[in-house]
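Design a sequence for this backbone.
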């Protein structure tokens, strides 16, 4: 029996003047450890290629990275918007649409939850410090595997079933966040200042987004490893 193939999106990266791709090893190791085969997806905005990739993949992980271009949710860029990566935005937007059409599992992490919400019809805070009134620090100045704030998980959600707790310590490295929720989604977790930290779509087999970085936590905390086993198991069931 073959392991499910899990696409892992990458960041636009330029090293030594050479354009390339980067993805943290914690993501791909997370897929291996959860029993899946990770496939790192080189950047392209060629629609036919993306349609074909979606047919091969059994599941998808949308990884962390820079800000989402507000064009994706029909807003002008406001003061405080950070770096955007149009090629990556275009690729991930098409991948989300194709994977959703095939009802293949998606785990959306940090930037991932943001682009998932935007592409599915929601909006984002472009710059939390300027646009969000909460007083919690969402860009921790601590190592990536340190849990800085808590998320309250909504009972009865897919996320609650996966993590098995109503109060989960998480890390936090985000500059944007979900504002208006995309149609059909439910909020499955919030930080104590009320910010949306997790969403899911009950109409799909597995479409789960989290605002924190479980890839940096799964080695230390079993409940965060279960996000990776969750998407891999769902992909195996669909394959
Ligand atoms: Mn946070």
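Sequence:
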């Amino acid at each position: 029996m073959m392991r499910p193939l899990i696409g892992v999106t990458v960041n636009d990266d330029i090293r030594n003047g050479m354009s390339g791709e980067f993805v943290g090893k914690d993501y791909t190791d997370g897929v291996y450890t959860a029993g899946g085969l990770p496939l790192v997806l080189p950047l392209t905005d060629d629609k036919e290629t993306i349609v074909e990739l979606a047919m091969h993949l059994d599941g998808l992980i949308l990884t962390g990275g820079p800000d989402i271009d507000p064009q994706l949710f029909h807003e002008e860029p406001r003061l405080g918007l950070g770096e955007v990566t149009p090629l990556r935005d275009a690729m991930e937007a098409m991948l989300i649409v194709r994977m959703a059409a095939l009802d293949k599992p998606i785990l959306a992490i940090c930037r991932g939850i943001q682009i998932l919400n935007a592409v599915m019809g929601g909006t984002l805070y472009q710059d939390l410090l300027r646009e969000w009134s909460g007083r919690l620090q969402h860009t921790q100045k601590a190592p990536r595997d340190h849990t800085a704030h808590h998320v309250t998980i909504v009972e009865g959600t897919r996320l609650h079933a996966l993590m098995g707790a109503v109060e989960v310590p998480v890390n936090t490295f985000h500059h944007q966040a979900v504002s208006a929720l995309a149609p059909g989604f439910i909020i499955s977790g919030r930080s104590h200042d009320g910010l949306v930290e997790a969403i899911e779509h009950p109409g799909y087999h597995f479409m789960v987004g989290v605002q924190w970085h479980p890839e940096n936590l799964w080695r230390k905390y079993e409940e965060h490893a279960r996000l990776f086993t969750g998407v891999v198991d769902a992909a195996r069931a669909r394959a």
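The CA atoms of residues 45 and 91 lie 5 Å apart.
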